[in-house]
Amino acid sequence: MEDLIRQDILNIEAYKPGKPIEEVERELGLKDVVKLASNENPLGPSPAALAAIRKNLKSLNRYPEGTCFYLKKKLAAKLGVKENNLLFGNGSDELIDIILKTIKGPDAEIITSDTTFVEYKICGAINGFDVTAVPLKDFTFDLEAIRSKITKRTKAVFIANPNNPTGTFVNAKQVADFLDGMPRQVLVVFDEAYFEFVTEKDFPEMIPLIEKKNVIVLRTFSKAYGLAGLRIGYMAASEKFIGYAQRVRQPFNVNSLAQAAATAALNDKKFLKRTRECIAKEKKLLYKAFLKLGVWFKDSSANFIFVRLEKDAGKVFQLLLKKGVIIREMSQYGLTNYARITVGTRQENIKLIKGLDEVLNSK
Ligand SMILES: Cc1ncc(COP(=O)(O)O)c(C=O)c1O
């Protein structure tokens, strides 16, 4: 078989998703397993989105609206951009792939960080790019170091802002310096999957730059809007780039329930407020508990916290699993003592804290 498969695919490690909660419960004979591993919204989906889904179920015999017509209208007005500045995808994952397919040329490279969302690397490799991964500095994207690595072969830079898994962000001044004099052939992609959780005043405003610089902004309905299972995200970019990217996407890449749910969720200000308040409050509770437990953590601008455990994180992960709590350990980045923990509901966080206490303080 191997002689049939593309050489660069042979070398790619597939994305490793966590096991479904139900399977973990069945295997371990547990009930009420808590999943704090995928940065999902602990409050569930927006109720308005659920109502819209129910209403649209009877039209499932129809193909979806190919351009996300109503959603695009609504979002363009909300963001203050033209409808032609927006493109929707089957999650922002798909948009990463569409961007890379749109810009691929021979002997091309993309740059990102060595400890960030792995899809840039996987998708870059699948699409035939060399991927340069620049180390973080103080757990934050090192824009100066990335800038120094840009060559004529560089087609795009992917920056998760805030960064997954560390929860840090690059600020407005750092981004302005980075973009100043950036060669025109380099697309700079700001992946703002956790944008809605950010409260810091010096977080950069990227949307106003999409026509002025070679900047693309990615956002998603998977996190703050609670729609991860439906798969819908969007990119904001120049009309020109969107025009080309449109040619690359599949004709019906966003399903009709996702479109209806996302349109309703945009209106559900109450749910978004409740989500933001919950994450802010629960993050404080977790910080306090981590301090008490002697667990180092990085202040996070997102809905997860990057922590260092004084034991092998893989072992801590296994022990916590037996207690019905799933976290994400970071050995895939070569960080054996680190983990990423999604902020849950009060009840979930208390279960985590109790479990961590038992695991870390056992001999
Ligand atoms: C930084 C970042 N970008 C993109 C995604 C994927 O989002 P989506 O569910 O929209 O594909 C994630 C999901 O964890 C993420 O952390």
Quick structural summary:
The protein is α/β, with parallel strands linked by helices.
Please give the count of helices: 13
Class by alpha and beta content? alpha/beta
At the fourth level of CATH, the homologous superfamily of the largest domain is Type I PLP-dependent aspartate aminotransferase-like (Major domain)
Biggest sheet layout: 7 strands, mixed
Unreliable spans: none
CATH class of the largest domain: Alpha Beta
How large is the share of residues in beta strands? 15-25%
CATH topology of the largest domain: Aspartate Aminotransferase, domain 2
Strand order within the widest sheet?
Answer: 2-8-7-6-5-3-4
Question: Any ligands, ions or cofactors bound here, and which?
Answer: pyridoxal-5'-phosphate
CATH architecture of the largest domain: 3-Layer(aba) Sandwich
> In sequence order, what are the helices and strands, one letter per element?
HHEHHEHEHEHEHEEEHHHEEHEEEH
